[in-house]
Amino acid sequence: MIEFDRVTVTYDGASEPALRDVSFIVPEGELALVIGRTGSGKSTLLRAINGLVPHFTGGTLSGRVLVDGRDTRKYRPRDLADVVGMVGQDPMAGFVTDTVEDELAYSMESLGVAPDVMRRRVEETLDLLGLADVRDRALTSLSGGQRQRTAIGAALTSHPAVLVLDEPTSALDPQAAEEVLAALQRLVHDLGVTVVLAEHRLERVIQYADRVIEVPGGAAAVSTGLPAERMVTAPVAPPVVELGRLAGWSPLPLSVRDARRAAVALRRQLDSAAPVRPVAELGDELARCSDLVVGYGAVTALRGVSLSIRAGEVVALMGRNGAGKSTLLNTLVGILPPRSGTASTAGTDPLRTKPAQLVKAVGLVPQEPADILYAATVAEECAAADSDFKVPAGSCRAILERLAPDVAVDLHPRDLSEGQRLCLALAVVLCGAPPLLLLDEPTRGLDYGAKRRLVAILRELAAAGHAVVLSTHDVEMVAEVATRVMVLAEGELVSDGETAEVIAGSPAFAPQVAKILAPLPFLTVGEVADALDRAS
One of this protein's Pfam families, by short name (predicted)? Predict the structure, then answer.
């Protein structure tokens, strides 16, 4: 169905190819998982499948990409639309209509599908992806996860033979991600659709993959193989695989179910051990909400939320898509006004605080990093941040190099990968070292290495007396760094407590290690490794 034959892609002005001499075949009816570190070339590979590379992106493609027998050098994306459905990293960039239902129908209208067939497929897709309650909503009013599901649905309705997805679950809560992956499984197994997806959260998808395509970046060759074989040496691996490597299991398990079966002896070994977790030293109150109610038009997003954030905390804000997490963060920086109740940051009302003063008290990295990036190059963006926050020259650049070491500073921010762009936005905000740091989905597009580096920075900030609040669906990130978890549901705060207390027994929010070793109280592979070291 898909064949890459000695494909090399070089963008205009680039000193090195984004892809070099790539050859592989994906047969019909397989789910191929593309893995690799942030910025390694995964998105380039995906875009070559539907002809966006090179017809839209420019640059030079040598070799040959065949999709259902069509050579993408001769067929433009519009000529492949009946065969290939594409969902990019940024859903809003691909939308062409105003409402959810119109967006689902658009691709079928372009292909001339009969009206009665269109209506049936739209209804099926709304139910499949849990979008029926927002069918008439404006796309601009949706949460990040709802936008992502809409983008996936818009690609599905035309019933393509090949479906290409770039980070399809990055903005989805665990339940929604499972529903999307289950839908993709049905497409692969029941309808013979060929699915190629790139995903950094391998813990969600590795057990469903028929093959893994590893894109290491640089001069290293792209390689393919069975998931269990590739995970033995792959530089990026989910916690279930890392735990298997630590325990010496063979073959390595790819699912929690298989790992629980293999972990009987490990659970006995750890039975009398307990994880050692640092205790947060709390300081002054940096944010407070009292009976906070916030809404958009007829929609009430927050309902009577009361909370307090203190220095030294790393607080994870969790909940389903549309639960009100981003609304809460935006209210704390004065973007949204409360309908009733109060929200204060550093003891002041953010709506009545001058921006020059507010930015010294609180920093927000939004869900769409490009919203705070304005300069023409990465270097100029970093220099502007140094100047704005009056810190020594090179401070922002140093943070960026720590988060994403290989970012080319002469590129425009829009030419970066989604993960690299997020790292740049993080570096810009972190450069100011605000007492209160708010992060909205801070791990979208980040590989495991980048997440580990971000975790280290957040721990350092908390130890230095800052407070961090991160809205996230990344349960593994929460287990690594959060000292406290708040769960929102339908705009209400339904849970607030220590991380292990809130997430360990939750079917939705428990990390892989907690599920594998339950009822033992371990959350991360690092905690297990530390306990084994102390026992030896």
Answer: ABC_tran
Question: Is residue 148 assigned to a domain?
Answer: yes
DSSP per residue over 36-69, as a string?
-STTSSHHHHHHHHTTHHHHTT-SEEEEEEEETT
Report the distance separating Cα 364 and Cα 360, nearest Å.
11
pTM more than 0.90: no
| CATH code of residue 306 | 3.40.50.300
Mind listing the pLDDT tens digit for each residue in 88-134? Answer: 877 888 899 999 999 999 989 988 999 999 999 999 999 888 889 99
Which of 468, 440, 429 is CA-nearest to residue 315?
468
CB 87 within 8 A of CB 155: yes
* Res 399: pLDDT: 94
Rounded CA gap, 161 and 146, in Å?
24
Please check whether residue 170 lies inside any domain of the structure: yes
- Per-residue DSSP letter, 75: S
In a domain, 280, yes or no: no
pLDDT-derived band at 449 (thresholds 50, 70, 90) equals confident
**pLDDT value of position 392:** 94
| pLDDT > 90 fraction of the chain, expressed in percent and rounded | 65
- Dihedral sign (CA 510, 515, 516, 521): positive
For residue 65, name the pLDDT band (cuts at 50, 70, 90): very high
- pLDDT for 12: 85
- Both tokens of 400, joined, read 């960026």
Q: Which helix (H) or strand (E) holds 10?
A: strand 2-10
Instruction: Indicate whether 369 belongs to any domain.
Output: yes
H helix or E strand, kind and range, residue 105: helix 100-111
Same domain for 218 and 108?
Answer: yes
Cβ pair 275, 522 in contact under 8 A: yes
- Reduced DSSP (H G I as helix, E B as strand, rest coil) percent helix, strand, coil of the chain, to 5: 40, 20, 40
Q: Are residues 231 and 312 in the same domain?
A: no
Q: Which residues of 500-531 are buried (b: 16+ CB within 10 A; e: fewer)?
A: bebbbebeebbbbbbbbbbebbbbbbbbbebb
Q: Which residues of 179-217 are buried (b: 16+ CB within 10 A; e: fewer)?
A: bbbebbeebbeeeebbbbbbbbbbbbbbbbbbbbbbbbb
Element (H, E) at 363: strand 362-365
Kindly state whether residues 403 and 303 are assigned to the same domain: yes
